Amino acid sequence: MADDPRFETNFEKRDADSDDDTESEDEGDSSPEISSREIHRKPNVAAEIWGNSFPGHENPNFQPRYNIYKQILRHPNLFFPFVVRLRHESLVELYSIDKEFHYRFNQYYISIVHDYAVYHAPNAAYAFSWVLFPELCITDPTLRPMDHRPHLARDIPSLRWARMVLHRDFIVDRIMTALALDAHRLPQRAKLTVMKFWVLMSMDTSRIRRLFVQDREAWTDEDLVLFQMFLVKLDMRLSDPVMGDGFADLAHLMLTQKSLAPLLHLLSGEKFDYLDAEDWAVRTYVMEDLNLDEFPWLDDENETDIPPNECGLQSKEGWHHSGARMDSPMDMLIQESVRRHLHVHRWLVDFVLYGHVDPKTSQNLKFVQGLRADNGQAALKDVRLHEKVTKELLMKLAGRWGVQEDPAPGDANLNMVESHEHLEEDDFIENSDDEDGLEESEEEHDEMDIN
Fold it and tell me: What are the Acidic residues biased-composition ranges (predicted)?
């Protein structure tokens, strides 16, 4: 290496540069001199144990341990069922930390996300289509073109959309369960109808709502009838004199919001009281719809702590304080039923009796009260409350509101019922005698014809 002319040339050049620097210093250069240098770097601790040499070659006979997770990812027939059956939290975690899972997921992103939503919530995936939620879409990770335009990648549903579908399916399912536990059953088909109504609630203009409601493919006649059955059951639940939470108008307030989550909080008793109802009413309805003569403080900003620009937003176009008047989605569906001449009022009695009376045996149906701790089976209970329980609840309500119970009318009603029962028995006996006499006269008439 010392015989290399390039090395000698470089070495000589470096010596010449150093000589020039020395001459410049002698001429009176006032630049600062570096007296010492300190390298701020810790020594290699591992070198004391393993040495400075590089590791040797890998053992050619070494075989890695069998990894069932990697084998599932690389199997063409097991990868898709495995991904679809994961919990959403586990799916997001694997997509975030595993490079191979991330790459394979991106290759089939749109099909996996769609199949995942359909597998876990088929009705919600159909009702809350990703086309209606562009804010929950992302650009295709593989940059596949849209409409054969290579410069523009398509938009596809994201994992956030799948999460939204699962969340809304859970909310609607809990609402139906809460009504069923209070003996207000609904057909299974009504679940999809309630989800369609949630889509209608999320629209912020009357024009879009009207076009959506008038679409007979989106809202069939059966959907309109089932929705009004849902209204009847909800009113029965809220206006129950003993087990109810308020009054029937509370259903209209809850169904005028942007979401059905407040309705679930109301039915489950998680959060909602009288003060919350006042606040929601002021924010939902315009002042012309409120009874200010009876409740004048609703129009007082100091009492409600609600600024004027937030009053009645749910009943205005675009949910803006300067928007025009907008009808409630609940009222739009009722108006559409009238426009289609469905005559829903003919089925109101059937709506009330559905889930309470067996149409074949005319007997009261039982409802699920809860799950037993020993075997996990459903515990059934009669729909009607026991007479003793009903009297105790009525006595508690009477004591709370200061109403004195008068036993005389109750005894009179009881005597009236007993006399009515005896009267029906006497009538039945008289009717049976008349029937026997009628049968005897018919037999005599037949004998005369034979003769």
Answer: 17-30, 424-451
Q: Give the angle subtended at the CA of 337 by the CAs of 333 and 343, to the nearest 5°.
A: 145
| Tens digit of each residue's pLDDT (9 = 90 or more) over 31-71 | 667 666 555 556 666 566 666 555 555 667 777 788 899 99
**Segment holding 380, helix H or strand E:** strand 378-382
How far apart CA 11 and CA 18 sit, in angstroms, is 11
DSSP 8-class letter at 371? E
Cα 208 to Cα 317: distance, rounded to the nearest angstrom: 11
Residues 232 and 234: their CA atoms lie apart, in Å, by 5
Q: Return the minimum-mean-pLDDT range out of 50-54, 127-131, 246-250, 328-332.
A: 50-54
What would the two tokens of residue 396 be? 């508690």
pLDDT average, residue stretch 385-389:
66
Q: pLDDT tier at 443 (50, 70, 90 boundaries)?
A: very low
Which residue, 143, 169, 165, is CA-closest to 156? 143
- pLDDT tens profile 270-318: 777 666 777 778 888 877 777 777 777 677 667 777 777 777 778 888 8
314 and 262 Cβ atoms separated by less than 8 Å: no
Neighbour tally for 416: CB within 10 Å: 10
229 or 305: which leads in pLDDT: 229
**Helices 88-97 & 159-181, crossing angle to 10 degrees?**
170
Q: Decide if 211 contacts 326 (C-beta within 8 A).
A: no
* Predicted local confidence at residue 300, as pLDDT: 67
| Burial (CB count <10 Å: 0-12, 13-18, 19+), residue 207 | exposed
Average pLDDT of the chain is: 76
Beta-ladder partners of 364: 357
Angle between helices 190-201 and 159-181 (to 10 degrees): 120
- Give the C-alpha separation, 206 to 297, whole Å: 30
Nearest to 329 by CA among 440, 134, 183, 198: 198
Is residue 145 a contact partner of residue 153, using CB atoms and an 8 Å limit? Answer: yes
User: Rounded distance, CA 267 to CA 245, Å?
Assistant: 8
Alpha-helical runs (H) found in 269-402: 274-284, 301-304, 329-339, 348-353, 387-401
